[in-house]
Every structure is written in C-alpha cells, then in structure tokens.
Amino acid sequence: MKKVVACTNLDVLSVKGNEATGFSMKWNVIFIWFELAEECADDDEAKLATSELRKGVLEELKMQNSFVEEWGTDPGKERTVNSATVKYTDFLLATASGKVEGVKGPGKLATPFERTKVAAYTLAAMTPCMRLYSFLGKELQALLDPEDDRHPYKKWIDSYSSESFQASALQTEDLLDKLSVSLTSEELDIIEKLYHQAMKLEIDFFLAQPLAQPTVAPLTKGHNPAEDRLVIFSDFDLTCTVVDSSAILAEIAIVTAPKSDVVQSEAQIARMSSADLKNTWDLLSGQYTEEYEQCIESIMPSKRVEFNYEALCKALELLLDFERRVNSRVIESEVLKGLNLEDVKRAGERLILQDGCTSFFQKIVNNKNLNTNVHVLSYCWCGDLIRSAFSSGGLDVNVHANELIFDESISTGEIVKKVESPLDKAQAFNDILKNYSNDRKNLTVYIGDSVGDLLCLLKADIGIVVGSSASLRKVGSQFGVSFVPLFPGLVRKQKESGGESSPNWKGLSGMLYTVSGWAEIHAFILGW
Question: Which residue range or ranges hold the Thiaminase-2/PQQC domain (predicted)?
C-alpha cells in the first residue's frame, strides 16, 4: 500500500483548480487506484481485466490533459480545488488502502481472500464513476447536432459515449460481480454502501462545478419565496401509490366482512358476507374496465387534431357522466358499507408509495425556505386514506378528494362526491389558485398519471406524467398533446432561454414532460 501514501504527495494532487484540472486530478487518482486493485486481485483473469482497465484510464488521462491545453488552462498554476473533488479522491484512496467505515483494517493482506475482498471494495467505489460517465456520454451524445463540430465539449462527449468506453464500464461491472462471488452477505452490504456513497460523491463532483448562466434545473434554485409562490399539485392513485386506492378499500371491506355462515347481531350494521362482497366487487370492477374503454373510444377524434384545451374539455365531459354512474353504482351496491375508520387509517399508514415519493414531499414540505404549497387531487373515495398515507411519513398535505361518510367510525357506504372527473379536478385546481392572494406570482407543477389528470397537467405551468398509461397517451396524442421525456425537454428549454435569463414556464402549451419515477422529479425540482 506504499503507493497510496505516495499518491497523497504527488504533484497531481496539488491544488490546481477549475473543472479541467478537477477532472484530471480525479482520473489520476483512479489510475493509481487501478494499480492497487491489480495488486490485490487474486487470479490471473482478474489481474488481466484490471490491467486492461488501467490502460483505458491512461488514455483518459491523456485526453484530460489535452482538454487542459485546449481550454487554455495552465496545469502548473496552483489553485484551490473544490471540496467535492477532494472528498471524492480521498474516498477512493481510503477505500483502496482498506480504510472502509465499519470494517477492520486488512493488515498485511496475507491471504488471497483478504486481497480479493479489498479489490472488490475498491472496485465498488470505482464502478459508479465508469457507469455515470458512460450514461452521461450517451445521453449528451443524443442531444448533439451531428453536423455541428463547434460544441466546446464535443471531444469529451464523443469519448465517453464511444463503444470502447461503454465496454470498459461493462467490464468494470463484470469484474466487480466476479470478485464479489465469494463474499458474505455482510460484505455484500458493504459493497452496496460503497457503491451508493461513490455515486453520491460523483454527483456532488458535477454539481460543484461553477455555472456561468441561469439554469432550468433545479427548479427551486432560482425560487424567491418573497416574489414567487411554488404550488405543487399531485394525483394520488398510481401516481403516488403502487396500488389503486379502490382496491385497498375493497380489500379492507372483504377482509373485515362477516363469513356467510356467521349470524350478525342486531346491534351491528347489516353487511354482505365476504363471499358476496367479493363477487359484487369483481362485477363492479369488470363493468368499470369495459365501460371505461368504451368511453375512451367514444371521445377520440377520428384523426389527430391540433391542441385545443377547450375542445379537450368538451370531449372529457363524457368522462364526467361515466364516473358519476360508477360512483352511484358503488354506493348502491353497499360494498363500502360497514368499514371501520380505524381500519382505513391503518391501511393508509401501511400503504406502499412509489419509490422516492415520500422523501420528495418530505423535503419539499420541511424546507421552510421554499414555502411551498402542496395539494393532492384525487378520485379516491376516502380522503382519510390519503391523509393517513402521508401522515405516516410525517406529512400534513392538503387533500382534495371524495369522502366516505362515517357514523360513529363506521362507514354508511355513502360517499360525499367532490372530485369525480377530469373537469372536477380542473375546477379544484382553479379554485385553489384563486384563493391565493395576488402578492406573489404562482409557479404551478402538476404530477399525474392518467386521463383524469390530463386537464390539470396541461393547465399547470409544468405538467409531469409519471408512468406509462396507454389511455393517457392515446387521448393526449389525438388531441395534439406532445409527450417529451424530461431530460431532453429540459435541455431544449435551456437552449431556448439562451442562458441569459430565468426560463419562462407557462401552462396550456400542449406539451407534457414524462418521467420514469420520482427520482427524476426530485432531481428536476430540488436537485440533489
């Protein structure tokens, strides 16, 4: 491990500043890291693979040095390196020397197993770098104009999007898998922890680079609570949740309903047996699916039309009649009769939300500097279920939904109908904004997943679609709505702004952003 000690005194780790030398500094440490990994590798195949990767890093160093020269940076001029770069390189060096948090030092690495373990740990700290650069290279390459050779970072992007670098990233991951085969479950947990820590440090490294112009992301970076009001709206079912709330309520009803052979006392509210209730629910669910598909087909224009919000509103009026019939059918069937309010609340507290959903709202709500307003708009039959789902994460959000009527904590089966259709959601959206004073400018974000959210998604300054609802895209596309993946959409928005002023977000543009999950929403609105 003498090379680790020596590395801390190398000229390459002396402070050299700016982004070019920051990248060079990092890749120099990575080169030495691969030397150490090669020493620790236990078999010839692993040693050969590590040696090949080290040669690839040597090529990266040559490229980084050429960037330094091309961008007119004096590599001999000492400057202060930002703390994110130092933290990352220190982490790599510490891991390579066996200094892993919660793990006893490896000593002299006397056995092949000890050497393999240290090699695996160090590779776990390195793999995120290769994968992230590979990912960024591909993403940025897709956004470049192939005919334009003037882009200042074209060589950088070409290098990291190349097939050879993609192969190196995959080779690094394969090697990590190979070295991890003999590790215990506890040691694999350490591998996972090192990987996540390294990825966070990598992201921090990029975020620490200075920006010379206003940027569209993160959205809250330019937010001024004294002048602007950030209002975030979200649907609930399948936007925040993994399972639709109607299925949750039906399950509670079926599980708590009496068996067919049990005689109910006169003091109890009369309920269907669990078997009858299940059959009734299956019938209602089947009717809903069939009629919904028919309703969607009936509102579709024969050919794609230009985007017109009013025309879309008119078409979606048919959904209002449909949803009202459905809700009346549910009430008349009495499938929700006899539910205990405490059972509903417990189900809400245990409800599984989409990955990253709770943490996003926690950071939004708990950041007092943002002073953000959060509203949940939902068709859910029971607002108490939604409130319990969020309260389990310590969140108190504004819920706008239908409400089950309870008599001494027992549901009567009746529903107070408040939000039944896309038009009802749009009306609630407008009413909420009207209730705000005019002392600040509203910036609205709506997050949804279905046709029921379409009007609000379009009315908001920024509409974000979660998931891949076929009916939403089908209806939206026929009515002239365009669906744009968030990342390339933000790049386009950045180009439009010219970097000279803050972007102008405006609703009713006919364009919606699409994301695969809440991590993208978090990154766009809050950053990391």
Answer: 117-206
Please confirm whether the linkage preceding 218 is cis (ω < 30° from 0). yes
Give CA separation, 210 vs 84, 140, 213, 433, 488, in Å: 12, 19, 9, 36, 22
- Cα 486 from Cα 503, distance rounded (Å): 15
Paired strand residues for 466? 515
What count of residues does the chain have?
528
In this structure, what are the phi and psi dihedrals at residue 306, rounded to the nearest 5 degrees? -70, 150
Name the catalytic one among 129, 295, 380, 456. Answer: 129
CA 253, 258, 260, 264 torsion-angle sign: negative
Report, as an integer, the average pLDDT of 155-181.
88
Over range 213-228, report the average pLDDT: 86
For residue 121, the SS3 value is helix
Would you call 158 helix, strand, or coil by DSSP? helix
Catalytic annotation present for 45: no
CB 55 within 8 A of CB 118: no
**List 19, 38, 202, 323, catalytic entry:** 202
End-to-end CA distance of the chain: 34
The 10 Å Cβ neighbour count of residue 473 is 16
Question: How many angstroms separate the CA atoms of 212 and 90, rounded?
Answer: 28
Q: What are phi and psi of 430, to 5 degrees?
A: -65, -40
- Dmax (CA) of the chain: 91
CA distance linking residue 300 with residue 232, whole number of Å: 30
96 - beta bridge partners? none
The DSSP code for 241 is: B
Query: Quick check: is 60 catalytic?
Result: no
String of DSSP letters for 343-398 = HHHHHHHHPPBPTTHHHHHHHHHH-TTT--EEEEE---S-HHHHHHHHHTTT---E
Q: Give the pair of three-digit tokens for residue 110.
A: 């006397």
Determine whether 427 is exposed, middle or buried from the number of CB atoms within 10 Å of its CB (0-12, 13-18, 19+): middle
Higher pLDDT, 200 or 78: 200
List Cβ neighbours of 63 (8 Å cut-off, separation of 6 or more).
Answer: 155, 156, 159
Four-point Cα dihedral 186, 192, 196, 199, nearest 10: 140
pLDDT 10s digits, 406-464 = 999 999 999 999 999 999 999 999 999 999 988 889 999 999 999 999 999 999 999 99
**242-321-406 Cα angle (round to 5):** 60
| Pair of tokens at residue 338 | 């006899």
